[in-house]
Design goal:
single chain; mainly alpha; two-stranded antiparallel ribbon; 2 strands; elongated; membrane; DUF3311 domain-containing protein; transmembrane helix; transmembrane
């Protein structure tokens, strides 16, 4: 993967994370119910966070494999 393309993917991922973890999106999940015994808001925040970490890992790993 070219360095410029990797940079664009990482910026797009950053903006996606910024969008998903801001107040209006998180307000959707601020409800008093639970999933798997965990409040919905916490479950969604940590799920999105882990997803962003995994996607970052995949982007970085693909770029190192092509070198």
């Amino acid at each position: 993967m070219k360095e410029g393309l990797k940079s664009q993917y990482l910026w797009a991922l950053f903006l996606l994370g910024l969008f998903l973890l801001n107040y209006p999106m998180m307000a959707i999940y601020d409800i008093p119910s639970r999933w798997l015994g965990i409040p919905v808001l916490y479950f969604c925040v940590f799920s999105i966070w882990i997803g962003l970490i995994v996607l970052t890992f995949i982007i970085i790993k693909r770029s190192k494999k092509d070198v």
